[in-house]
């Protein structure tokens, strides 16, 4: 048979590997748990260099997702003050 009959898998765009689809993350909790797992694996020092780089990229993506999720929630968090008016929540750090 000729080489034209063999099928090859389509190549993925490089940016898809560096920036995984947000649809692959169901929740903040899932992203945070995966991020913790990546950190633990990287801290073990047992990952090959290429795997470490891919894990770092995924971890960066997850970190950004978590930070954006927290920022959205912070904007939504409001409390009732003594006059039953909605006021923006302010943490003790502010």
How is this structure best described in words?
There is one protein chain. With about 90 residues, the protein is mainly alpha-helical. It has one domain (about 25-94): Helix Hairpins. The chain has helices at about 15-20, 30-45, 50-75, and strands at about 80, 85-90. Strands 1-2 form a two-stranded antiparallel ribbon. Helix 2 packs antiparallel against helix 3 (about 50-75). It is elongated and about 55 Å long. It starts with 13 loop residues before the first helix and ends in a 6-residue tail after the last strand. Residues about 1-20 have low confidence and may be disordered.
How many strands, what sense, and barrel or not for the largest sheet? 2 strands, antiparallel
What percentage of amino acids are in beta strands? 5-15%
Number of helices: 3
* Number of extended strands: 2
Shape: elongated
**Text of the CATH class:** Mainly Alpha
Please name the CATH architecture. Orthogonal Bundle
CATH fold call: Helix Hairpins
Topology pattern, helix = H, strand = E = HHHEE
Structural class call reads mainly alpha
Average per-residue pLDDT, rounded, comes to 74
Fraction of helical residues: 40-55%
Strand order of the largest sheet: 1-2
Low-confidence stretches: 1-18
Measure the end-to-end span: 72 Å
- Cα radius of gyration in angstroms: 21 Å
The total number of structural domains is 1
Q: Superfamily at the CATH H level?
A: Exonuclease VII, small subunit
